[in-house]
Amino acid sequence: MKTLACYSMKGGVGKTATAVNIAWFAARAGYKTLLIDLDPQGASSFYFRVKSKKKPWDEKFFQDHEYLLKHIKEADYENLDVLPAHFSFRNFDINLSDISKPEKGLKKVLKGFKSSYDLIILDCPPTISNLSEAVFYTSDLVLVPVIPTTLSERTLDQLYQYFDEYKLNTDKITPFFSMVQKQKHMHADSITRLKERYSSFIDVTIPFAADLEKMGEHRQPLGEFASGKPVFTHVQSLWQAVRERL
Ligand SMILES: Nc1ncnc2c1ncn2[C@@H]1O[C@H](COP(=O)(O)OP(=O)(O)O)[C@@H](O)[C@H]1O
Ligand SMILES: [Mg+2]
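Above: query sequence and magnesium ion SMILES. Below: predicted holo structure tokens.
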């Protein structure tokens, strides 16, 4: 079982679109896949049309594997399950500070899924916090969508610094360019600078594409309604690159 996090401390960069589409590709390739929607905004739960239980969650999330198991929903696609987000997930940082070894809680609770899933995908909220530390500790790969702008460059630098500070394995950080508009000089310049600075970038670029935006209207992964479109091929290449690195 491998764990993949879709993470950035920035919002609106393509984490959820990536998590949803990679989950879809993985399931189609025959991987038993579980997407865990860690973001209280619940965007990937929305795309997969699954709803959480009513009762708020607490630190049980990081302690009780059987309890998690009870709340997993089947998506509309073979091999693909979802643990939907709940608004109470916004308290995860407090919940984690209430348990001993908070960074290890998530890894421990996910270990219980070893015999049921080949791939766990974590769709993360845009924070850097106790929860992110647990995510970084737990994941085999931390996939980071980067919109090529000056501010994103700073954010990626900060992520590397954070990993260094907390003695986490920086090899896990796997950035790729997201929402790229090649006609913008700023994007092209930023891509050049970032590629020079970080050899870890996946050699696949996801363009800015209206079809990806339409996932919200369709409430479906891209492949269900736009498999003939150019952006589909880009996302497929991203999945193949991720698969090779995992
Ligand atoms: N490559 C893209 N091109 C155009 N729109 C995109 C692209 N990727 C994501 N979007 C749209 O941008 C918004 C933010 O994307 P999302 O994946 O939800 O980001 P995050 O999870 O990082 O907040 C959504 O409305 C989504 O449909
Ligand atoms: Mg999101």
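The mean pLDDT is 96.
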